[in-house]
Amino acid sequence: MEDQTSQEQASPEVRKRIQESFDRQGLMRHLGARITRIAPGCVHIALPGRPEVTQQHGYFHAGATSSIADSAGGYAALTLFLEDTEVLTVEYKINLLAPALGDHIEAIGTVLKAGRTLTVCQLEVYGVGDGRRKLVANGQQTLIRVDRPAQ
């Protein structure tokens, strides 16, 4: 579910802040995920297929699928907040709709409702390959906005 805000690009400052935060995530680096789009209220994350992110049948593992969905939603929310704030996931629910196959999977996090404290995001994950794109997971996430910890 992409709204028209996902057609825009976030400001260079927001893109830089989001990318720098993403680059500090050990799990995303370990998985080999990368951000492919940063727009106001919408972030895309791609995960290339390789044996380390699959389960025993060769499909993308549900843990890898849900991890990039969680991060896509979190960063989508963060695009709408000030520089001195962070977000943490309070909860998320994901439905695995089909085996995740393809050259890569792509998670799209889209803000449905941004609040002062809680923000709700739509999560979608697509299997992409052979010129096709198939929805393989769908979910919803609630995040809490917090002050950035002093460093």
Protein architecture, described:
- The longest helix has 17 residues, at 62-78.
- The N and C termini lie far apart (36 Å).
- The chain has helices spanning 12-23, 26-31, 62-78; strands at residues 34-39, 42-48, 85-96, 104-114, 118-129, 132-147.
- It is of the alpha+beta class.
- It is globular, with a radius of gyration of 15 Å.
- A hairpin with a 2-residue loop joins strand 1 (34-39) and strand 2.
- The model is unreliable at 1-6 (pLDDT under 50).
- Helices cover 23% and strands 42% of the residues.
- The chain has a six-stranded antiparallel beta sheet.
- It has a single domain (4-147), classed as Thiol Ester Dehydrase, Chain A (Roll), CATH 3.10.129.10.
- It has three helices and six strands; from the N terminus they run ααββαββββ.
Task: Provide a quick synopsis of the model.
The chain has three helices and six strands, in the order ααββαββββ. By secondary structure, the chain is of the alpha+beta class.
Keywords summarizing the entry:
151 residues; six-stranded antiparallel β-sheet; 23% helix; Thiol Ester Dehydrase, Chain A; alpha+beta; 6 strands; disordered N terminus
- CATH fold assignment: Thiol Ester Dehydrase, Chain A
What is the architecture at the second tier of CATH?
Answer: Roll
User: H/E order of the elements?
Assistant: HHEEHEEEE
The first-level CATH class is given as Alpha Beta
Mean pLDDT: 94
Low-confidence blocks of residues? 1-6
